């Protein structure tokens, strides 16, 4: 009996020793693996990789929009146009993905965050209008951003700049013609089809109805808006498009807003196939027909004319 107990005790001791050995081996292997991993991590460069052209473009645009948001916020207590611009600029940056900072809580020792330019050099109406104009120019030239999104945002920024200029009497720092002269030849080449002609003619009749029903002393902007669309109709016909213009169209409840919306929706879709000069023509045209004053004040500007922002977000 005692011999049996001693044998059982010996087997238990042997099992324990074997288990202990296995544990020691596991711990040793774990230490080796962790040491190797630590060595690799220590040798890894934590600095950010060189950004792609798309990221450089996006980051530059986002920084400009961030400055606009600051400026609009500072001026919103005094300027009615700056109030919706605060929200519009926040929407723009949301679509762009906001300004990217590699280490928001501070970089590791020996590294630095890249310079982020989101602080306006001055707070003024001129600074705000200039930033909007330059954003519009950058969006027209953008090569990596979706062309519909870029053109819509470019038009919006240009329209906000023009409305602010009218409201404040200020302009850009360089004295730029904010809307610019519309290149109707480029716009006509882009819209050389019967569908575009029908939309342009319908909008023309809408705008001319609004002008005819505006007090003669206040209809200058309404007449100018109609003349811009007449120029577009002529440019399309000069491309050899068949003249299928309707003689008379039924008027909607709000002909001004409906006419503008029809043109914006159509032109922004065409931006997919537009070159830079045609995109510039779209932006200048949309700015021209959104001239502030009269009935237009209640419907413009918007953050994304011609599109829905959700189309371009995840």
Query: Quick one: overall form?
Result: globular
> What's the helix-strand series?
HHHHHHHHHH
Q: Uncertain regions: pLDDT < 50 for 5+ in a row?
A: 1-6, 39-43, 294-298
The SS-based structural class is mainly alpha
- The whole-number mean of residue pLDDT values reads 84
What can you see in these coordinates?
The protein has 10 helices and no strands. The longest helix has 42 residues, at 2-43. Helix 2 (53-75) packs antiparallel against helix 4 (125-141) and helix 6 (184-190) packs across helix 8. The chain is mainly alpha-helical and 314 residues long. It has helices at residues 2-43, 53-75, 82-96, 125-141, 147-168, 184-190, 194-212, 220-237, 255-270, 276-289. It is globular and about 85 Å long.
Question: Which short descriptors sum up this protein?
Answer:
314 residues, 10 helices, 0% strand
